[in-house]
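User: Structure please.
Assistant: Input sequence and predicted structure:
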Amino acid sequence: MQLSDVQHLATLARLDISEDEQKALLGDLTAILGYIEQINTADISLDINMNPEQRNVVREDVVTNTPGSHTDVLMKEVPSSVDGFVKVKKIL
């Protein structure tokens, strides 16, 4: 990354920054991009022989209720309803 890149980014963001701020941003952006490069080179290959205690355990996503099973109970609690919908005051 070069100073011209920082100036271009500032123009795109419609920021008016001084030359000292541009130099400081150049250092910050270079450090950030260096950190991203470290992340990109990290070994993230899957280890099949991983200890099972170190893996995430998730349950199956199973629906435990039937649609509408609680609707009657909830609709009894609303002050006013029409054709299975909650009726509310008109707000402008």
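The beta strands are 81-82, 85-86.
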